[in-house]
Amino acid sequence: MKAVSFGQYYPSDSILHRLDARMKLLLVVLYITMIFFVQSYIVFFAILIFAFALVLISKVPFLKVLRSVRMIMFLMIFMFIITTLFRGGNVGEVALTGDLRFPSIYLSGIIHASHMALRIFCLVLGTSLLTFTTTPVELTDAIERAFSPLKLIRFPVHEMALIMSIALRLIPTLMEETGKIINAQKARGAEFESRNIFKKAKAMLPVLIPLFVSSFRRAEDLANAMDSRCYRGSEGRTRLKQMRYRLKDLIALLVVVAIFFAVLVFRYNFFDFEFITYLGETWWGGSSDLPPPSII
To answer: What is the domain count for the chain?
Structure first.
């Protein structure tokens, strides 16, 4: 549990840390949208290089970022297996396995499953940089500014942003608390290493109940602390640090928009580039409805 790093802020003096929080929030939204347009291994590889370059620029330890991805490795493997086993093939495609006792597996299904796994990996890798390079206070202000038009319909924007910020901040704390409870239960003879799923689930019950109790206690302490400091919502509140867009924010936006445009060009080939057409007709393009070639 100590290795969990999602939701933690890593202090550093990098370009990403100095970007405006509102701009980083917008860039993450563009990045997430861009990932869903990627249908090619070549573009996935380019996106991964871009994400790894951002990690180096942010000066966040690479292993710390990979720990945030490790949390969803089980989900990636599970989705890959399920998609491979139960996705049908293209028209005229021959199954790789023809055994009646085992589901038919198609090469197009493996390609589609690997695309899903890569998409999840890129999403977590890129979005985790937002929490690593942005403090909870800055993130709260950015979310409040982004949804400020909803105040016209009396939507509690400030309260929503505050809840999201507190939730992100408490993720590492709850993980640390879970690790302490597990160690305490192990000292009392609890078995967490059993291969039996039912025994593992039964062993987790003594962990979940104290964790819920501790969470409610922390929530009550936080509410009392805010009340003792005369917190009364967003009415008339001012900010110590005012957010301002700078030239570096504009440059970062232009870079991400240019990459997004390149992804769209590679996906839809607006200008009829021959090399994109060739890649789209092969297995590496991943966008053709024809059966994949037998030789990779």
So the answer is: 1
Checking if the pLDDT of 45 tops 70, the result is yes
- How buried is 65 (Cβ within 10 angstroms: 0-12 exposed, 13-18 middle, 19+ buried)? buried
Q: Where are the alpha helices (DSSP H) in the chain?
A: 15-18, 21-35, 41-58, 62-70, 73-86, 107-133, 136-146, 157-187, 197-228, 247-268, 274-280
Res 62: pLDDT: 86
At residue 150's C-alpha, the angle toward residues 223 and 148, to 5°, is 75
The structure's pTM equals 0.74
DSSP state of 103: -
- Residue-level pLDDT at 296: 33
The confidence score (pLDDT) of residue 187 equals 82
pLDDT at 29: 92
Cβ–Cβ < 8 Å for 210, 181: yes
Q: Is residue 234 part of a domain?
A: yes
| Residue 58 belongs to some domain of the structure | yes
Domain span holding position 290: 15-295
Rounded CA separation 177/252 (Å): 38
What is the enclosing helix (H) or strand (E) of 38?
none
Mean of pLDDT values over 231-248: 74
Tell me the mean pLDDT in the region 186-197: 72
Categorise residue 12: left if φ over 0, alpha if ψ from -120 to 50, beta otherwise. Answer: beta
Domain-embedded: residue 7: no
> Is 2 a member of any domain?
no
What are φ and ψ of residue 281, in 5° steps?
-95, 5
Query: Considering only CA atoms, which of 121, 140, 38 is closest in space to residue 77?
Result: 121
